[in-house]
Specification:
By secondary structure, this protein is α/β, with parallel strands linked by helices. It has one domain: 3-Layer(aba) Sandwich (Rossmann fold). The chain is built from 6 helices and 7 strands. A 7-stranded mixed sheet has the order 3-2-1-4-5-6-7, sandwiched between helices. It is globular and about 45 Å long. Bound molecules: glycinamide ribonucleotide. Glycinamide ribonucleotide (GAR) binds next to α1, β5 and α6.
Amino acid sequence: MHRLAVFASGSGTNFEAIAQACADGRLDAGVVLMVCDNPDAAVVGRAARFGIPSFVFSPKSYASKADYEREIIAKMDALGVELVCLAGYMRIVSDVLLEAYGGRIINIHPSLLPAFRGAHAVEQAVAYGVKVYGITIHYVDAVLDGGKIIAQRAFEYDGNDPEEVHRIGQKIEHQLYIETIAKLIQ
Ligand code: GAR
């Protein structure tokens, strides 16, 4: 069984899809740690329902990003984490985490990178009027949403409702993340 950590900041539907795939045996893996930078996020309750240990912190209570990342690294080292999956973790990862886990951190992003980097990719794509949307999974490096692409999946949408794009995209995200993790841990 491979040991995963999942980082999230919000709802955590991707976290839940990964945790459920592990629980069902669709992934030969277990989520050994959920990391969240927002104590009010819904993902905290999801982790508790799965009985998955979590590290939930408030960045404001640390002097620096390096300080909380060192704490995360210590926990991941102790648990033998092999792959770190960012799933709606809305913080830029610093050199501290990259030096410790670089090459083993992946992220899911709701656009066809390199188009529409950053926090509001779907809203930007809708405002731009694109007709082909998509999801990207990539390695995380020092460039925001800039690491080597591992997988992409596109879908067509001809409308102007970002919520609808999110709904369509999230179903694809859940499948694509599980398929991609399965390939990486093989
Ligand atoms: C996902 O749609 C993910 O692609 C996006 O946050 C959402 C989290 O949803 N990530 C980014 O925008 C990263 N730049 P979830 O909490 O339901 O998994």
